[in-house]
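Trying the structure run again after the queue cleared.
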Amino acid sequence: MSRILLFAILSLGCLQSFAQDLNYAKKTISTLTSKKYWGRGYTNNGMGKAADFIENEFKKFGLSPLSGNSYKQFFSFPVNTFPSNMSLKLNGKTLIPGKDFIVHQASKGTTASDSLIQKDSTTYLSKSGQIAISLQPKLTWSVSQQALDYTIVEVNKNSVSLPLSHIELNMTNELVPNFTAANVGAIIKGTTKPDSILVFTAHYDHLGGMGSKTFFPGANDNASGVAMLLDLAKYYAVHPPKYSVAFICFAAEEAGLLGSKYFTENPLIPLKNIRFLWNLDLVGTGETGATVVNATIHAQEFALLNKINNEKQLLAKINARGKAANSDHYFFTEKGVPAFFLYTQGGIAAYHDVDDKAETLPLTAYENLFKLFVDFSTAITN
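Done. Tokens:
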């Protein structure tokens, strides 16, 4: 048996031992979606606790900081938060935050008891004109960097009986002008070409909490991507490749890709040295395959990805998509860094809601995705 063949067999065995065990991913996702981390957002120090968790994992695996002695890159921005009161009654019926209603992320806090006037089939206004009720088929929350001077409440249309005539609302907001967050990054030096870098990124923030009793777990978005990134870091720490491999977890993606924008404007590694970047976001499903953003921009790399996938039969299908500003790869693309953003498809439909939970996330394609990332990275460095 040749030394090359022997090395290939041994390498394959090592990869399988890492890739076939879902326990680490499940444990990581369960941890990050727990009440302790409060949706990895802007109240109860949820995002800060998540950053500490990621930093400790990097240290445990023996990775080095991207630059200097700190794994964290701090930055600040304004954000509208909802730290405490969050109650709503419509026509005397008490509604459940997150399930029956959400407050628009830019809303102003208010306490009111008022009559409602119907404006159209889905909209009601309070008599004072300061509160709007919008009936929705699905509740989807987000993050705002500003606060309006009025209040918008989105209500699940299946949770109320129409017409609406009266509202009782008690909701508190706090606009934080300089909320401080941190990107968390680490690196494994390459064995022969340390100045060439492969990069894996994932945002670790989510939506946080809406009031003192409701938080958004964010299992698929994006505890799944963080789990995959950390699992890859664990693997490469034991199997360092020729190129250096960097791992960056971004904050404030949900607030407008703020962490990745800040990083590209204040890079801790030379952007020109990045051979390729993978952004991992929404990778917890995969029954029907995955989609790759920037596939049409980097046709050669996408062809290589499909070649590996077809030979190994890892994913049902990989769909090509063009350039899109829909996750943390975008500002790297704008700086000329070759990058793909991959997200899986099929399975649960939970997104930006309270149902994006660890216990219902199938992780259908997780093992094969892991293999695909490693095989692609090996191929592209050769």
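Residues 1-20 have pLDDT under 50 and may be disordered. Worth checking whether this holds up in the mutant runs.
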